[in-house]
Amino acid sequence: MNTKIDTIDRAVKEKTIIIQKIKNELNKVIVGQESMIDSVLTGVLCDGHILLEGVPGLAKTLTVSSFASCMNSTFTRIQFTPDLLPADIIGTLIYNQKTGEFETKKGPIFSNIILADEINRAPAKVQSALLEAMQERQVSIGGTTYKLDAPFLVMATENPIEQEGTYPLPEAQVDRFMLKARVDYPTMEEEKIIMNKVVNEDFGDIKNVINKNELKDVRNIVREIHIDEKLEKYIIDLVFATRNKENSYSHYIRYGASPRASIYLLHTCKARAFMDNRGYVIPDDIKHTAYPVLRHRIIMSYEAEADSITADNVINEILNMVEVP
After folding, report:
1. Does the domain spanning 1-223 belong to CATH 3.40.50.300?
2. How far apart are CA 286 and CA 98, in angstroms?
3. What is the CATH topology of the domain spanning 225-325?
4. Parts of the chain belonging to CATH 1.10.8.80
5. What gap in Å lies between CA 239 and CA 297, rounded to an integer?
């Protein structure tokens, strides 16, 4: 290991204690759901937005709000409904009769952490307003542009089983989410613990364990984590495999992953290495993050739906096929 990598490795080992502190606080109120917690932490470390997919009651809201408490940052939950308007999110101009002037009333988007609950229940204009803020990190109200305070993270949820009265997100908008995490049911043992905790109100108080400046420092370290050129080529090979029309699974794919997939795979594999207390990336980091980064960027064909083939099935096939350096 050369001197530069060794220096980064030491810096990582000094800072990863923060990750354990955050997890310890979240475990006071969250039982299990390690995959969801890791996805939220990855998004936070990489400054990327997250789409959480899961049925109601799996602690998605509680996880996000608890993390906001860990960081002592502002948190807003927005319940998306069919009658929601863009102004309900970003804000609007209000006429003040006393002064005879218009005043800016900022909307709930002006928070550090946003939970967009059931984002697919709102019409396209509302989704666009939110996703523009996600991309540009700013909003315009009455001709004036307002920068959103950093950190600014959107955690959006989708209910995969209920389609009536929903407006599916267009592919171009879904692509702006760094990760799409699947939230699964707890195990029987975990559900028993959850049941007893709720009945007995056995929840600890969440403490502030990381501030905004510390988060900025950690993000800088994550960006410096070493990745070999061969592994960078491996990322490109994986993404290009989703676009290859000559593979055995290509008839299941209408459109492959966008260039954002390569960018976000590079970001997230470094975050994964950081959470594993390493200053360098290994192939398993890339394999682990391939599923949440790629699953919403691969547009499946009608034939795939007919054969019950999912994006995760295709990703698994690609990981088996592409040679690991």
Report:
1. yes
2. 59
3. Helicase, Ruva Protein; domain 3 (1.10.8)
4. 225-325
5. 10
**118, 80 contact by CB (below 8 A):** yes
Enumerate the CATH 3.40.50.300 domain ranges in the chain, comma separated.
Answer: 1-223
pLDDT tens digits, 296-316: 888 888 888 888 888 889 899
pTM score of the predicted model: 0.85
The single-letter code of the amino acid at 172 is: A
- 125 in Cβ contact with 90 (< 8 Å): no
Q: What is the pLDDT of residue 325?
A: 81
| Token couple for 25 | 């606080």
Can you read off the two tokens belonging to residue 35? 């995959």
DSSP track, 118-155: TGGGS-HHHHHHHHHHHHHSEEEETTEEEEPPSS-EEE
- Count how many residues are written for the chain: 325
Residue 287 tokens read as 């394999």
| Angle at alpha carbon of residue 89, lines to 83 and 92, rounded to 5° | 100
